[in-house]
Structures are given as structure tokens and as C-alpha cells.
Amino acid sequence: MDSQAFTQFHVALSLVGILSGLIVLYGLLKSNRMPRMTLLFLVTTVLTSVTGFFFHRDHILPSHIVGIISLVFLGVTMLALYAYHLRGFWRSVYVIGAVISLYLNVFVLVVQSFLKVPALHAFAPNGNEPPFAIAQGCVLLAFIVLGVLAVKRFRPALI
């Protein structure tokens, strides 16, 4: 697979992971497990993080660190769901892990949007200007609020 096709594959995985993750987050808020959508979210998000390591780089970049953190949270999230079946505190571990994993994917989406979309890049060409920080702050705040609500509301029937 050539590098352009691989990049498109990686981006497609990421977008499917984000879209399915947003649907899963809605399900968490409605106390709906959505098992198939959750599996799609988890698989595509893991693959997004894993495929990110296959881009040739001479040294570790911040994106690699985000990928490692994401994989750790995804591992714990899957453990909570599939090994411990959301029993006891594992329900909260699952919700927090899923929300953080989705947030990290959206965080990278915002970074890439400011890098690749000319209109956004004009506002923050170095990635450290106020428009970039405001956008990332709003995303973080939204995920904190949604995460807290999800932990409070997600009470599925145990399997």
C-alpha cells in the first residue's frame, strides 16, 4: 500500500472511530450499551492508534505519545467491558476509558484540522495561538461535562 493510500486508510479509521464513538457516547448518556457500535468504536480506535505508528518518523512525536496513551486507555476500557462485564467500579472505568479514548481521537482531529484546513491554519499557523487553544479548550470542556454525565447516567443491565 502506498503512503497516500495508507494515510487515507488511517484517516478513514479515525473518522469511523470518532463517529461511532460519538454514537456510543450518546448511548452511555442514555444507559444503552450498544454492543455492536461499541465494538466498532473500540476496534477502529485501536486500529487508528496502531496504524499511526506505521508512518515513518526518525524520532518519537507527540502523536506517538497520544497513541500510546490512547492504547492504554483502550486496553483498560476493553478489560472493564469484556473481562469484568462492567461490574462494580468497572462500569465507571469503562465509561471514563471510552470517553478519554474518544476525546484523544477528537483532540488529534482538531490538531490535524488546524494543520491541514487552510482557513483554520491561517488562524493558528504554529498550533500555539489563541484560536487553537480555545478550540482545544472547548473540546476538552465538552468531554469533561459529557464524561461526568455519562458516569452518572450509564447504568446498564449487567451481562
Can you offer a commentary on this structure?
With 159 residues, the chain is mainly α. The protein has one domain (3-153). It is 78% helix and 0% strand. The protein contains 6 helices and no strands. It has helices at residues 3-29, 35-52, 62-83, 90-116, 118-123, 130-153. The protein is globular and about 45 Å long. The model has no long low-confidence stretch (mean pLDDT 95).
Return the average pLDDT rounded to an integer: 95
The helix content is over 70%
Structural domain count: 1
**Any idea what the radius of gyration is?**
16 Å
Tell me the structural class: mainly alpha
The number of helices is 6
| Largest sheet features | none
**Proportion of β residues?**
under 5%
Principal-axis shape equals globular
Distance between the termini: 41 Å
| Low-pLDDT windows of residues | none
Element pattern in H and E: HHHHHH
| Number of beta-strand segments | 0
Set out the fold topology.
Blueprint: H1 3-29, H2 35-52, H3 62-83, H4 90-116, H5 118-123, H6 130-153
Helix pairs in contact: 1-2, 1-4, 1-6, 2-3, 3-4, 4-6
Descriptive keywords:
single chain; 159 residues; mainly alpha; 6 helices; 78% helix; globular
Short description:
The chain is 78% helix and 0% strand.
